[in-house]
Amino acid sequence: AQSVTQPDIHITVSEGASLELRCNYSYGATPYLFWYVQSPGQGLQLLLKYFSGDTLVQGIKGFEAEFKRSQSSFNLRKPSVHWSDAAEYFCAVARPTGNTPLVFGKGTRLSVIA
Amino acid sequence: NAGVTQTPKFRVLKTGQSMTLLCAQDMNHEYMYWYRQDPGMGLRLIHYSVGEGTTAKGEVPDGYNVSRLKKQNFLLGLESAAPSQTSVYFCASYAAGWSYEQYFGPGTRLTVT
Predict the structure, then answer these.
(1) With an 8 Å Cβ cutoff, are B100 and A106 in contact?
(2) Of A101, B52, B105, B110, which is most buried with the most CB atoms under 10 A?
(3) Does A99 score more than 70 pLDDT?
């Protein structure tokens, strides 16, 4: 069965600092990989996704993620965090057979301080 | 184009009461999902549907039932609510194909006392 681990429950960064959120997955083959963001009181919004090809993917709001097969990781990064990035971030995976439900990690809450 | 909407936004139930949560999407998506979100647990799949008239169990289906009588609607029912079902419920939909982007509703916050 697939599983997703987000090791950091809560991260605090200063505005303007760089950010990296970790995600590790467990699956026999390379799954489809996703990062979602949830602002307080809101639903989830897709930031970016990886299916195949270039292992560095660009998303919305200045985020990027890098797939590393050898480490079974899909870490999310942003070079300079803005106060509006404070939210909860979820990594998710799906089997590459397509059209299968997503499996979510437990999330990382990001706080941004001045 | 409203996307995915959920009704109601908030609800308080007493133990043993029943209710139905409605999810509606206007994007003609085939796939629809019900998740529950609890602190520190992420999103867990309750039930899902791959098309009108079909439903399937997810990770945590016990205590819930679903129906997909119309393509645009996916109903989640609680027949006899329990305090353990206190949660935030999210509906999502997605169009089969290459995009694989799930669109989420704003959520329903349910409290069972």
Answers:
(1) no
(2) B105
(3) no
